[in-house]
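Ticket #4471: structure output looks truncated?

Reporter: J.K.
Steps to reproduce: submitted the chain below (259 residues) through the standard prediction queue, then opened the result file.
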Amino acid sequence: MIPPTSIDGTDITGATIDGTDVQEITVDGQTVFSAETLPVAYSNLEAWYPFDSAEYGGGNADDVTATFNPSQSGDSTAHDGTVVGATFQATDGVTDINAGANSGAFEFDGNNDKIDTGYTPPLESSFVCWVNVDTTNLMAVMNARQGNDGMWTRTSGGKALVQIGNGGTYLQISSTSTITTGSWHLIMGAYDGNNVIVGVDGNIENTASVGRVQNGTLSLGTRSDNNRNFFDGLIDDARVYNKALSAAEFSGIYNNTEP
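Returned output as attached by the reporter:
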C-alpha cells in the first residue's frame, strides 16, 4: 500500500483509479473512494445499503450509491429504505467501507420486521447481501416480487434459495453449501437474461435456464408482495447490481467485506 499522500489543488481529471496503486481517497475527512468497493464497477451499482453508520445509511437504511461517487454511480436517485420494526445495531456486522470490521447491521425478529424500498430493480440484476440466520425456517431475504413475477432470495433448511416467478411459472434453485445459524454468510441471487444464479460466500454454486418478464419493488426481510416469510436474524451490506455478477466479482465482494 502506498503511504498516505496529500494532493492539494492538483487536477487529476480523467485519471484511472483501479484500486491497485490507490487504496483510499478522503475529502474533508470523508471516504469518497476505497479499493474495497471496486470488485464491481460503480456504473453497475443500482442500490447499496451498507448499514454501517449513521453517516452512511445506518439506522435509516439509506441507499448510499451516489454518496460515494455520484459521477460513476449507475443511478443518482437514492432508493432509500423505510424501516418497519427492524432494529439497527451499531456493531456485530460485517466489514464496511466507512466503519470497517464489526460494523452495523439490522436485526429482524421473524414476526413483522422488514425494510421496504419502493424501488423496482432491473430485470437483469444481482441481489447480494450478508445474512446471519437464527433459524432454518423458510425466510425471505431480498425480494422483488410482484404477484406471480419477479426474483427473490430466501433461506430454508440450511440452504440459500433463489426463485424466479414468470406469470405463474416458478423455478427455484438452491445452494450446495450450508447456511449455518449464528454465522455470517454472503448470498447472491442473480439473473443474466437467460439463467437464474445462486451464490454463497464468494462462490457461484448453481444455475438454471429460465425466462422472465419483470420485477416488483424491493423489500428486505419479507416477501414484498404479501408480507410473509419474515426473516429472523441479521442482514447487512445489501446491494443491487444491474447485471449478473461474475464469479470473480462475487468473490471480490466476499473477500473485501467478510467479517
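Triage note (M.O.): checked the attachment and the full C-alpha cell line is present. The domain at 82-236+243-257 is CATH 2.60.120.200 (Jelly Rolls).
Status: closed, working as intended.
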